[in-house]
Every structure is written in structure tokens, then in C-alpha cells.
Amino acid sequence: MSAKEIMNKDEMARTLNRMVFQILEAVRGEEGFCLVGIRKGGATLAKRMADILAREGVKNIRLGYLDITLYRDDLSSIHDYPVLHSTELNFDVTGQNIVLVDDVIYTGRTTRAALDALIDLGRPKKILLAAFIDRGHRELPIQPDFTGKTVPTSRSELVDVKLEEDGGTDCITINKKA
Fold this sequence. Notes:
alpha/beta
């Protein structure tokens, strides 16, 4: 079966804009907030969100990127030599309102790993979760506060978020697992 496109570039842009405005509404009155993208796709989407916020006149946007590789509970089963990316946070997370950004939420295990990584860096005031695609099948009691699109899938399918920053064209497809 070939890949089925579920979102194109324009739909992705509209969805991301909507999510940013939902986040702004939710954090209104707070002492600011930080965007933290989970490497890899979540980091790119967090950067795009920061750009939208800047265009909307939001000042002093704190943006960071989180590598959760060593916090994964399936690390030994996915690769003998995991590829590590850098965690880049130029602010202290203690006392901050954090919006954690990921491209796809599935079982909830990536989010759990990200929460562990953040807590190791300090004690945020609040952590909210923004997931661009929610494909269901949770194994942990974790739900996003902001969702771009809910896409029912089977466990035999993969959701592929393709981003221009990675050398492709923005689109989201569903594929059968090999």
C-alpha cells in the first residue's frame, strides 16, 4: 500500500497557526512561557511556533530543544548505538511555564521520557503538551493539552511528518509498517 497523505503544506500551516493561538489563550495572564521542542520533529515545530509568535508581536520568546534519547524505556531494543542530539535550553526551567512540543503522540512513552528529562533539569511551574498529530493507542495516561489533528490509526500503520527543514516538502502521510 502506498502512503496516504492526510495533510498538505497549507493544512499544516493553518493547523500550526491555530495551535499557537490556542496556546496564547491558555497562557494569557501567566508570567510568560517557554517552548521546548522534543527532538527531532517537535523541535522544528516549536521553532515554527516561535516564529509565528514573533510575527504576532510576542516578545522574548524562550525556545529550547530537548533530546530524550537516553530517557527512552525502549533504548536497548531500538538500536545498539543510539544517535544522540543535543539538548539546547538557554534558560532555567525552574519556575517556568513550559509548552512541550512534539510532532506525533502515540503511546505516550516519548512524552514520559521528555517529562523525565525536563524534571532532571529543574522544577517547572507548569508543563503543557502540544502534539501536532494524535494517533491514539496510549499506553500511559498522557494526553495533549493542544492537538493539531486527531488521526485514527491502526498499530500496523506509521504516521510520517515530513518537514521542509529536513529537505523535503511539508506533508503528513500514513504508511503501512513494513
